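Table 4 source record.
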Amino acid sequence: MANIQLHELIDELEAQTPSATELERVGEAQRRAQSLADLGDQLVGHFVARARDTGASWSQIGEAIGVSKQAAQQRDTFRMYERFTDRARQALVQSQDVARTHNGAYITSEHLLHGTLSIREGVAALVVEQLSGSLDTVLEQLEQRFPRDAETPPLRLVYAEMGRRVIDETIKVALKLNHNYVGTEHLLLGVLAAGGPAAALLGEHGVTSESAEPAILAKVEEIVANLKRQQQ
């Protein structure tokens, strides 16, 4: 059991809100409870990702947390998408649209990268533009490499194996960076970590995990600093 005692949480909240009313403390308690729940989700997610890395099946993971295989997968997916930013969610929608438009039977890493980079105001697109010199060139070459394996795309597209690996790696890199959200920058790093055709194309343009991660962290720091200046 984690060594967190209820009385310690109560004492800390009261000490940090000396002038608050009891009603105001209810609101603060709720916010802290949500933070603890979020932290717990990240803890479970971290070890689920590590278990998957060692070859554990969803059935085994479900048994470990006391639910069915399907429930374990759904739980993981639901919690994962809760943390996606609006831009990251938009990127996923764009990847589905572009796969369907180009007669894809599945959503691949190429579709995911195209969807991510099509959000031009996102950190991923800004960094690829910076490192490659031409975001448009990368997008055009991606379209040329799309798999066209369905005369009529299915109504509901699902991820190809490499596409799912990109999503898995995206979550891992967000956890590794201690970020409590998943943005387009994490999707970019997920593509690079997963390998495959999309990562290879990025590498041809000088965008690798080694070059992208520091550029992303610098860009995020710059954006945060600009927001702080605007709020002053």
